[in-house]
Known about the structure:
The complex is a heterodimer of chains A (388) and B (238).
Chain A: H1 5-14, H2 16-48, E1 55-60, E2 71-72, H3 73-80, E3 95-105, E4 114-121, H4 123-127, E5 133-137, E6 146-150, H5 151-156, E7 165-168, E8 171-180, E9 189-193, H6 194-200, E10 206-207, E11 209-213, H7 220-229, E12 235-239, H8 240-247, H9 252-283, H10 285-294, H11 298-324, E13 331-336, E14 341-346, H12 351-378, H13 381-386
Parallel strand pairs in A: 4-9, 6-8
Antiparallel strand pairs in A: 1-11, 1-12, 2-10, 3-4, 3-11, 5-8, 6-9, 7-8, 13-14
Helix pairs in contact in A: 1-11, 2-9, 2-11, 2-12, 9-11, 9-12, 11-12
Chain B: E1 4-16, E2 21-28, E3 31-33, E4 37-41, H1 48-55, E5 63-68, H2 78-88, E6 89-92, H3 104-109, H4 119-132, H5 148-160, E7 166-170, H6 178-195, E8 198-202, E9 214-219, E10 222-223
Parallel strand pairs in B: 4-8, 4-9, 6-7, 7-8
Antiparallel strand pairs in B: 1-2, 1-3, 1-5, 9-10
The complex binds adenosine-5'-triphosphate and magnesium ion.
Amino acid sequence: MAIPLAYNLRNLTVRKTTTIMTALGIALTVSVLVAVLALVNGLRTAFETAANPLNILVMRKGANAELTGGLARSVFEDLKSKPGIARAADGHPLASLELVTVINLPSVQNPEGTNVTVRGLTEVGLELREHVKIAEGRWFRAGRREVVVGKSVAKRFPDAQIGRKLRFGKGEWDVVGAMDAGQSATNSEIFCDLNQMSGDFNRFDGLSSALVRVPDAVSVDALINSINDDQRLNATARTEQQYMDSQTNSAAPIQYLGVFVSIIMAVGSSFAAMNTMYAAVARRAKEVGTLRVLGFSRGSILTSFFFESLLLSLLGGVLGCLLVLPLNNVTTGLMTFSTFSEIAFNFRVGPEAMAIGVAFALVMGAIGGLFPARMAAKKEILVALRDI
Amino acid sequence: MTETVIQTRDLTKEFIRDEFHVVALKDANLEVRKGEFVALMGPSGSGKSTLLHLIAAMDRPTDGEILVLGENLRSLSDRAIARWRNEHIGFVFQSFNLIPVLTAIENVELPLKLTALKKKERMEHAATALKLVGLGDRLGHLPRQLSGGQEQRVAIARAIVTDPDLILADEPTGNLDAQSAQEILTLLGRLNKEFGKTILLVTHDPHAARFASRIRHLEKGELLPEGQVPADYTVAPM
Lengths: 388, 238
Ligand SMILES: Nc1ncnc2c1ncn2[C@@H]1O[C@H](COP(=O)(O)OP(=O)(O)OP(=O)(O)O)[C@@H](O)[C@H]1O
Ligand SMILES: [Mg+2]
């Protein structure tokens, strides 16, 4: 049986201004952290939803990114015939040779141009990407200078509209469709015919990567090992998911900076909470003495003030989450280092990010409340009663 | 033979700081029996509060013994003393010391939080205590919505709600006007007569003593023998 929580709640209400100011300080700190988490979360979702768990990405040995990867056509021919690759209904192997490069397009915000990823592929490449649907217009045709743009590309680049033309490679390309890839990073890419593209960029033999499908989850490791161990291929295989996960690292600098900033801010907010709680303890010294005379132990005094600090920080944590909530689903762009192009994705303020934010606030409250609560508990009864 | 509630033997309290040394209480021998209403009088600084604090175990003596309800608290832990105080002592302060953010009934309920009583029972007890002090219609009022006299009556309700064996009151009328003071003293008198409560009352007011069954005087830390008053002590005509 402890000092009632109502005692703490009402004291927080009585000193409204201090409570709100302190809680706001905590809220700002929490909002920085949650915003960063939402950003990373959004980027992760963009990459994760782009990957199919049964897809395996193959690049030259030692390559870590498609852009700087490289895969010879002859290697692909050998790869295609490997056992363990799934086949379509008509018997052709589900293996897609692809060329990835970056072009520069003038955008609304950036008239000098922004980098965009262009991917050359064949029909199999589309079969392997079930998450990509044509939203408007139609797919490009083999042997034509036609492109399909991701919906984020269509949004950001005035030239990337159906019926208009994009200039890259050796000339102009017709925009014939726009694709919708859900939440995924594919929305930030442009798709076109592999052979047209390799001609434009003089990359007849050295292409970027291959994407292959295995029939079921149990065969994933077997095929990866078999490719990695094949001296002839001299290639590295990993699941598409692993590759996408590593792309999330693009957000690492922002993540570190954000976490660093919020920790610095948290130090300040903890001190603010501490200050508020010290003032509360000083102002209520006589009440502390009275409670002790009524029979409450030092322990219950400590708990009571500690809880009050936690309540205060909880308020801050909840406020912080509310501050960030409007960011949810706001689209942002981020330069990724492996593609040197911009990925558009949405902030995702999920329950996890909010839970971490609230927990972060509670840590601030705990640190800020501990010493004042201890001071209150340590007071001798008569000293406490004499204090005004 | 009636039970002894308070028994002190050569009770001494000294306050020693670097540069000063005060003997607040010297070799005090006091005995209070169950059902007595004892008034403790004496000039300012004579050690009245000090004696009361020692009896309530809010402070520890420098020397001597105190037995309250036959128990020597010297060896008990802080926590055990807190428990003991909650069960056996009701304390009334000069400045009421109600919790400002809690209503009258919540203030009175507070000491019951430390008992095994259920919420409903606690509220019933608290309401009964408030009715007893004549504040049955002020249960939901905050301290600042009450007059000084009413606040002190809430404080008395809080002191008696646990049905303690001993009520200690340190100048409970010191902050009140004559009318309210009279009401508080009458109330304490009733608690003593009707409910048999043992009361030790510190007061400056000679008239207050009329409510007591016995008066003891303190002078410069010394508890004067029964019946003896300080040299310059005069009772002003009422
Ligand atoms: N914590 C303390 N430190 C030092 N001296 C103290 C302390 N508490 C009390 N004293 C001294 O002890 C003596 C007795 O004080 P006490 O408070 O018991 O007097 P009192 O009779 O209650 O006086 P009053 O009628 O003014 O309340 C005084 O001289 C006082 O200054
Ligand atoms: Mg006093």
